[in-house]
Amino acid sequence: MKRALVCGAGGFIAYHLADRLKKEGYWVRAVDIKEPEFEPTTADEFMLLDLRKPEDCRRALKIDEVGAGFDEVYQLAADMGGMGFIMNAECDIMFNNMIINTHMINTAIKEFGVSNYFFSSSACVYHDQQVGENELSEDDVYPALPDNEYGWEKLYTERMAMAFGRHYGAKVRIARFQNTYGPLGTWTGGREKAPAAMCRKIAEVEDGGTIEIWGDGTAIRAYTYIDDLIDGIYALMHSDLEDGVNIGRQEYVPVDELARIVAKVAGKTINIKHIDGPVGVQARYFLDERISSIGWSSSVSLEEGIRKTYAWIEAQVQKKG
C-alpha cells in the first residue's frame, strides 16, 4: 500500500485530493493548521500542525509505527484566497507561504529523502494579459512579471523545489492551477474566489435583484471544476513531466458572463452593478499541451460545474439563514 502525505488538507483542493488518494487505495495522512470546515476528512489520519514550524514539518513526515517514509508528498498548504485577499494580504501571503514551502521542501526532500514531491503553483505566476492575447505556454512564464506577490512567491518556490529535486534525486511535479471551484470550497468571509462568490451573491438575492461585481466585468478567466483538477494532479504525479504544468479548462469567459451562467442555473434574472475593487489581471489564456500529452482533458463544462457548485452553496446560504 502506497503512503501519501497531503498538506493543506483542511482546505478545499487538498481535501478533495486526500479523498481521491484514499479511493485509489493509498494510506493517507492529511495535515493542516485547521480541520476541514464542511465535512470530516476521509484520510486515515489527520494532524493539526503549523507547517511554518520545521518541527511540525518533521512530525508530518515521520511515521513512527510504520518505520518507513511516504511514497508521495503533496504540498498544497498555503495562506491564500480570492483576489480581494491576495491584493490586501501581500505581506502575510509572502511571509507565511515562503516559510511553509522552505521548511517543507528542505525537510521532505533533503532530510527525509522523499522521492516524489508535488507542489501546487498557480496561473498567477504569469504576466498580466490583454483580452485577445495569445495563449501562454509554460515556458512563457519568463521573462518573469507576475501581477501580484502571491504569484512571485509561487514562482520562486517552483525554482526552489526543482533545485532540491535536482540536487537530492527527487522527482518534483509542479501544477499551475487555473481558478478552481466546486462544492466544499470557501464561499463567504472574504477568501472565496469568483465562482463561489458569484454563487453566494445570486443565491442571496431575490429574483430581479442586483448584485455587485468588482471592475467593469470584462476580465477574462478560465474556471476549472474540482474533479477535473484532481484528475490532473493525479495524472501529473504519476507521469514523467517535471517543471511547471498548466492544468485548467480552456473555456474563457468574462466575469459578467460567469454571473449570467450562475443566474441561469439559479433560474433568476439579475442586474449587475459594477463597483471599484481589486480585479487582478485583465485576462488569462494558456496552452494545455503538456498535461494533454499524458492523456488528461477537462470533462466538466463551466455550466455543468456551476450547477453542482450552486446547489451546494445555495444549501449553505439557506442553512445559514
Could you give a short description of this structure?
The protein has 321 residues and is of the alpha/beta class. The chain has helices at 12-23, 54-61, 83-88, 90-111, 149-168, 194-204, 226-237, 255-266, 289-292, 302-320; strands spanning 3-7, 27-32, 45-48, 72-75, 116-122, 171-177, 179-181, 210-214, 220-225, 243-247, 252-254, 271-275.
Q: Key terms for this structure?
A:
321 residues; alpha/beta; Rossmann fold; UDP-galactose 4-epimerase, domain 1; 2 domains; seven-stranded parallel beta sheet
Describe the secondary structure blueprint for this structure.
Layout: E1 3-7, H1 12-23, E2 27-32, E3 45-48, H2 54-61, E4 72-75, H3 83-88, H4 90-111, E5 116-122, H5 149-168, E6 171-177, E7 179-181, H6 194-204, E8 210-214, E9 220-225, H7 226-237, E10 243-247, E11 252-254, H8 255-266, E12 271-275, H9 289-292, H10 302-320
Biggest beta sheet attributes: 7 strands, parallel
CATH fold title of the largest domain: Rossmann fold
| Overall SS class | alpha/beta
Low-pLDDT stretches are: none
Can you tell me the overall shape?
Answer: globular
* Mean of residue pLDDT values: 96
Number of extended strands? 12
Identify the strand order in the major beta sheet: 3-2-1-4-5-6-10
Count of the domains? 2
Separate helix tally: 10
- The CATH homologous superfamily of the largest domain corresponds to NAD(P)-binding Rossmann-like Domain
In the CATH scheme, the class of the largest domain would be: Alpha Beta
What is the helix content? 25-40%
Q: How many angstroms does the end-to-end distance come to? A: 44 Å
